[in-house]
Specification:
The protein is an alpha+beta fold and 240 residues long. It is built from 7 helices and 8 strands. Among the domains are: 42 residues; 108 residues, no CATH class. Strands 1-2-3-4-8-7-5-6 form an 8-stranded antiparallel beta sheet. A hairpin with a 6-residue loop joins strand 3 and strand 4. The longest helix has 41 residues. It is globular, with a radius of gyration of 22 Å. About 3% of the residues have low confidence.
Length: 240
C-alpha cells in the first residue's frame, strides 16, 4: 500500500513545489515593477507595459535571436537632459526533439541613451574566455595603450580610428576603475543610441547605474568625433 501511494504523493509534492515557485516569481515580478514605477514617477518618466517596436530594437545581440520575443516594463524619459529608456527583453530557444526537446527562456535588461547623430559602431564588453579563444584563432580585438583596460575589456569596431577616438585615455582610465559592462554605439528603431544590456530583469538600481555610465561615455566623446559624424557640439538636440 505504501508503495502504491508513493508515486502519487511525490507527484503532488512536485506540483506543489512548482506552484509555490510560480507564485513567488509572480510576487517578485510585481514588487520589481512597483520599484520601477516609483523610480519612474520620482523622475517624471513614463512606464508602459510593453512596446512592440522595441522587439527589434537593435540589429545585433541580444536581439534577433530565438522566438517568442517579448518586451516589458518600458520606462522612458530624460536623463541629464538626454532622451533615455530602459526595458525588459526576453526570447525563447528550443533545442533537441522528442523526449530531448528543451525550451529555455533568455532574459535581458536594456538601457539606452539617445544620441544626436549616429556614431561609428564601437562595441565594448567584459573580457571573457570566449573572446580569448577567438583571439587565439585570429579574431581581431582592438587594444588601447592600457594593460589594465585590455585585460578587463574587449573592443570591436567597424572603424578602428573611431574606436581609438572614442576610447581616449581619460575614458579608458575611468572604465578601468569600474566593473566592466557591455555597451555599444548603434542605430536602433528609435534612432542612434548608446546602449547597454545585461542578463536578468530590469531593476531600478541597476538601470540608474547603467544610465550614469552611458551618460558619462557620451559626455566624454571628443568634439571632433561629433563633427566627423555631422553634428556640431552645442547645437540643439544633444540634450532636450
Amino acid at each position: 500500500m505504501d508503495g502504491q501511494w508513493f508515486a502519487p504523493a511525490l507527484a503532488l509534492l512536485l506540483l506543489a513545489a512548482v506552484l509555490v515557485g510560480v507564485a513567488l516569481s509572480v510576487v517578485a515580478d510585481r514588487r520589481r515593477r512597483e520599484r520601477l514605477l516609483v523610480w519612474s514617477a520620482e523622475r517624471r518618466w513614463d512606464w508602459r507595459a510593453t512596446d512592440e517596436r522595441l522587439v527589434g530594437f537593435l540589429p545585433g545581440e541580444p536581439f534577433g535571436r530565438g522566438r517568442s520575443r517579448r518586451v516589458g516594463n518600458v520606462v522612458s524619459g530624460t536623463w541629464d537632459g538626454r532622451p533615455a529608456l530602459g526595458f525588459d527583453y526576453r526570447y525563447k530557444v528550443t533545442t533537441g526533439s522528442g523526449k530531448n526537446r528543451r525550451t529555455r527562456t533568455y532574459r535581458y535588461a536594456v538601457a539606452a541613451v539617445h544620441l544626436p547623430v549616429a556614431l561609428p559602431r564601437v562595441h565594448v564588453g567584459p573580457e571573457n574566455a570566449f573572446h580569448r579563444v577567438a583571439q587565439a584563432f585570429g579574431v581581431d580585438d582592438i587594444e588601447v595603450e592600457s594593460h589594465e583596460f585590455n585585460r578587463r575589456y574587449t573592443v570591436e569596431a567597424d572603424d578602428r580610428r573611431a574606436a581609438f577616438s572614442i576610447l581616449h585615455p581619460r575614458l579608458v582610465e575611468t572604465l578601468s576603475r569600474v566593473e566592466p559592462v557591455e555597451w555599444r554605439t548603434d542605430t536602433s528603431v528609435l534612432g542612434p543610441v548608446l546602449v547597454s544590456w545585461w542578463r536578468g530583469s530590469l531593476e531600478a538600481v541597476e538601470l540608474q547605474q547603467r544610465l550614469i555610465l552611458l551618460d558619462a561615455v557620451v559626455d566624454s566623446v571628443p568634439d571632433y568625433v561629433w563633427r566627423d559624424a555631422g553634428w556640431e557640439p552645442g547645437d540643439a538636440g544633444q540634450r532636450s
